Amino acid sequence: MAHINLLPWREEKRQERQQQFFIAMGLTLALAIIIFAMFNSHMNSLLDKQNQRNAYLQKEIAIVDMQIKEIQDLEKQRDRLLARMRVIQDLQQSRPKVVKVFDSIVRTVPEGIHLQVLSREGDKLIVQGVAQTNARVSVFMNQLDNDPEFTESTLRVVQRTSSRDDAIRQFTLEVTESKPETDEEL
What we know:
alpha+beta, 186 residues, 4 strands, rod-shaped, 4-stranded antiparallel beta sheet
């Protein structure tokens, strides 16, 4: 048998396979780097798009917050205007009321009573005066109670000025005014 040395051929084959392995390894590594770079680039682009969306949403939220603040300011201003309008309406409704109250007081004061002080506290009138008798004060209170401009009269004080029979009586009474009729009630 002839002696054939296969070692150099095997060595060349092994070096060729090793070279192919390193080439395949290099190509795989290069491909992995390219894939990683593409993946990283894609993720960065998605992250940039999301950041742009977030920035847009933040800007829109700021605009909406400003609009909400403007709306709240307008609501406060509207409430103030409505309060002013109510005050003006109340004043306009109560303007003829003062005249009617004075007219009613003049019509209800019976003979023998003289009014000295007439003051107003809210919707109450405080009447101070002098009368010849207690009966005249009672008649005055009844007439006030029967008048549509007033709802209730309350006697606070009746004092005699002296112990004589013809002594005058000083009195203080409180009368509640009726509410003015609004257009809705008419």
